[in-house]
């Protein structure tokens, strides 16, 4: 199953909705999208991941990539699956992102 | 399942995952174990494709096969690319894992997730190719001998830890070191990142406080019952297992915010003593190596809490005992100061045949600051004082010592006037009295040649004179302020006449204010009455005993609240001859 990527920038908020599986195959496309939405230096990156069923370490590397590109960026993960939260915990990424059930208000 | 082979490109990843998912499904793995296995295989397959083939400029296939064997599901990945042993890879350590995301290196996470996702990851590089074996043990209702032995060894580990905790807690009987020890032991036993021990505040019911949290500096945290996770545990006395703190309505993220710590999973258990009283709550944070605490962890923490309850109970008792020892020691010190200073060798001043002098003090449990003293000024004059410091305990005893020394030095320096002596003592005490204590005192100089007593009063109870016929006369108060109160106060001096056979009876308010169980006071009239009942010619010691016996009989079972002190000077006249000269009868 491939990864469906939808992105939008609204003021200071960049939104990317992901559906499907994020692996080594689909990661480059997502990375390009992130690169594009971050070019406007948004304050926050909101990743809608409710429909993301799989995330390999390639996904984690995109989180690192985003933070390296823009260290003050706030990254929100909205409604991640329990297994993805588990991966975030195991790798210490949980502390670096905001995991929420609802999309944060715009800044 | 039959092996399936794909070209070694990233396009193989998705079908490999589907294959593994199907194999896990038919082996009966649950959702989480399946996901972790799929993730593990995917990570290695990604590395094979990217590093084994593409980066090395090689082309080849990747094949996957599933077998079950000895109640394990084994997924084997085979490739012919450049070999790379995942075990040669160093997992990122905790320090690296806790870095800011922007400071973290990209690599290493995949292999870490691969190793973490299965029970065992084996690797072999042979002439036929490279083989990764992912082994997941299957949990079945009918446990395999291997599973059973793994569970037994886990039970054994827990029992050993419990034994060690109970032993090491048993050796620490002081409260503060015990609290530190508990936090360290619990954190390690529960494989947690941090723990906090909250104690129920005995002085403020319904409040928990914590002085020590592992990994946080010493700072006191205070929470009310019902507040937050620990407070709710205290209120309900139920263990709470919170897999994700930020999803729980009881969780208060304020502490995370101020400390920078990120709480994930929480296990909080009540600590109850053997009588069933709540002693505290132990809170364990962030199970290491998994997302949350298991049912087994709950049972284990409850077992540990039984030991904590016993150890804490004992330490609190020891603590209370030590506190009481400190109080006892300070009381003993106060008593030693008081008693060490007062003359208590009787008969006193045996070289002065004109008098028979005796004094007694019954210190209260909580030592007061009563004092008495007597000493010759020269061959013809005896100086005496009785007094009472306003406070109790060590400070009062020290103040009393100061007053007594100041009095003796002043009296010897200015033997001509008792009023001048009192003024000087007052000045001295006013200047060195940070705790605003004061002394009531009655002091005098008895001229042995005449029986004349020059006296000064500093707010003290007036003495009595017991005459040989049994008549008791109260000495009039001439008025004077207590010592140590107002600097520069001028004291008046009065004069009274002791006739041969007269006894001057001085006492402190411990006598007049002695109480019975109905809280009635003994009173000055009772002294007067009792002195009158003493047999004729009774000596000073006898007179004091008569009064004190009566006081004791009056007080009965009531506790003595203040020092009881008496000083009696009987005057015989010079050379034992009755003096019949100048006579100033007491009014």
* Coarse shape of chain A: globular
Largest Cβ-defined interface: A-B, 36 and 38 residues
Number of helices of chain B: 14
Mean pLDDT of chain A: 89
Oligomer: heterodimer
Number of strands of chain B: 21
Element-by-element helix/strand order of chain A: EEHEHEHE
As laid out across the biggest beta sheet of chain A, the strand order is: 1-2-3-4-5
Distance between the termini of chain B: 124 Å
Structural class of chain B: alpha+beta
Largest sheet of chain A: 5 strands, mixed
Total beta-strand segments of chain A: 5
By DSSP (H or I, 4+ residues per run), the number of helices of chain A equals: 3
Helix content estimate of chain A: 25-40%
The profile of the biggest β sheet of chain B is:
6 strands, antiparallel
How do the strands and helices of this protein lay out in sequence?
The complex is a heterodimer of chains A (107) and B (587).
Chain A: E1 3-10, E2 13-22, H1 27-38, E3 44-55, H2 57-69, E4 74-78, H3 82-91, E5 98-100
Parallel strand pairs in A: 2-3, 3-4, 4-5
Antiparallel strand pairs in A: 1-2
Chain B: E1 4-7, H1 13-27, H2 31-55, E2 61-69, E3 72-79, H3 94-97, H4 109-116, E4 120-126, E5 129-137, H5 145-171, H6 175-189, E6 192-200, E7 207-210, E8 221-224, H7 228-236, E9 240-242, H8 254-259, E10 266-272, E11 278-287, H9 295-341, E12 355-362, E13 369-376, E14 381-389, H10 393-413, H11 418-431, E15 439-447, E16 452-458, E17 464-466, E18 472-474, E19 494-497, E20 503-507, H12 509-512, H13 524-533, H14 540-555, E21 564-571
Antiparallel strand pairs in B: 1-2, 2-3, 3-5, 4-5, 6-7, 6-11, 7-8, 9-10, 10-11, 12-21, 13-14, 14-15, 15-16, 16-19, 17-18, 17-20, 20-21
Helix pairs in contact in B: 1-2, 2-4, 5-6, 5-9, 6-9, 9-10, 10-11
């Amino acid at each position: 199953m491939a990864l469906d990527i939808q992105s939008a920038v609204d003021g200071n908020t960049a939104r990317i909705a992901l559906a499907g599986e994020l692996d080594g195959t689909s990661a480059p496309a997502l990375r390009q999208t992130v690169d594009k939405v971050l070019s406007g230096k948004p304050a926050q990156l909101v990743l809608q991941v409710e429909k993301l069923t799989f995330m390999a370490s390639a996904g984690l590397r995109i989180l690192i990539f985003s933070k390296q590109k823009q260290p003050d960026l706030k990254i929100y993960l909205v409604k991640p699956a329990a297994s993805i939260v588990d991966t975030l915990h195991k790798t210490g990424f949980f502390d670096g992102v905001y995991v929420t059930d609802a999309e944060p208000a715009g800044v | 399942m039959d092996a399936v082979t794909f070209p070694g490109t990233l396009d193989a990843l998705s079908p490999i995952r589907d294959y593994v998912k199907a194999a896990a499904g038919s082996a009966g793995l649950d959702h989480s174990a399946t996901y972790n296995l799929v993730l593990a295989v995917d990570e290695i397959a990604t590395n094979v494709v990217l590093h084994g083939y593409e980066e090395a400029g090689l082309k080849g296939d990747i094949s996957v096969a599933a077998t079950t064997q000895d109640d394990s599901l084994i997924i084997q990945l085979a490739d012919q690319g450049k070999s790379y042993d995942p075990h040669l890879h160093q997992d990122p350590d905790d320090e690296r894992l806790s870095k800011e995301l922007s400071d973290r290196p990209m690599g290493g996470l995949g292999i870490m997730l691969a190793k973490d996702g299965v029970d065992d990851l084996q690797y072999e590089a042979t002439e036929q190719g490279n083989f990764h074996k992912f082994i997941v043990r299957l949990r079945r209702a009918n446990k395999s001998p291997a599973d059973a032995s793994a569970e037994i060894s886990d039970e054994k580990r827990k029992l050993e830890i419990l034994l060690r905790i109970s032993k090491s807690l048993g050796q620490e009987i002081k409260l503060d070191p015990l609290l530190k020890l508990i936090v360290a032991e619990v954190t390690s036993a529960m494989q947690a990142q941090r723990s906090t021990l909250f104690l129920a505040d005995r002085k403020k019911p319904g409040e928990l406080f914590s002085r020590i949290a592992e990994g946080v500096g010493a700072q006191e945290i205070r929470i009310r019952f019902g507040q937050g996770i620990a407070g709710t545990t205290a209120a309900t006395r139920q263990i709470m297992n919170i897999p994700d703190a930020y999803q729980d309505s009881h969780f208060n993220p304020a502490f995370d915010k101020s400390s920078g710590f990120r709480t994930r999973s929480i296990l909080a258990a009540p600590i109850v003593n053997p009588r069933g009283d709540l002693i505290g709550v132990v809170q364990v944070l962030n199970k290491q190596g998994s997302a949350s605490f298991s049912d087994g962890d709950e049972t284990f923490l409850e077992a540990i809490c039984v030991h904590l309850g016993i150890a804490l109970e004992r330490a609190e008792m020891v603590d209370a005992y030590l506190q009481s020892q400190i109080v006892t020691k300070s009381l003993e010190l106060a008593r030693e100061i008081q008693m060490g200073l007062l003359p208590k060798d009787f008969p006193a001043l045996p070289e002065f045949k004109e008098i028979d002098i005796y004094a007694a003090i019954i210190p209260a449990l909580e030592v007061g600051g009563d004092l008495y003293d007597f000493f010759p000024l020269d061959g013809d004059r005896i100086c005496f004082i009785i007094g009472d410091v306003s406070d109790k305990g060590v400070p009062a005893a020290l103040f009393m010592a100061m007053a007594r020394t100041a009095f003796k030095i002043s009296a010897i320096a200015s033997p001509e006037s008792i009023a001048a002596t009192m003024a000087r003592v007052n000045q001295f005490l006013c200047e060195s009295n940070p705790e605003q204590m004061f002394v009531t005192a009655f002091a005098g100089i008895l001229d042995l040649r005449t029986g004349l007593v020059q006296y000064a009063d500093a707010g003290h109870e007036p003495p009595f004179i017991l005459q040989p016929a049994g008549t008791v006369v109260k000495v009039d108060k001439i008025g004077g302020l207590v010592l140590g109160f107002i600097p520069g106060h001028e004291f008046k001096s009065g004069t009274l006449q002791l006739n041969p056979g007269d006894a001057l009876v001085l006492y402190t308010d411990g006598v007049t204010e002695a109480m019975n169980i109905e809280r009635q006071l003994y009173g000055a009239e009772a002294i007067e009455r009792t002195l009158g009942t003493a047999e004729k010619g009774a000596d000073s010691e006898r007179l004091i005993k008569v009064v004190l016996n009566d006081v004791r009989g009056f007080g009965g079972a009531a506790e003595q609240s203040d020092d009881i002190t008496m000083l009696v000077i009987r005057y015989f006249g010079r050379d034992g001859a009755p003096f019949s000269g100048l006579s100033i009868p007491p009014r």
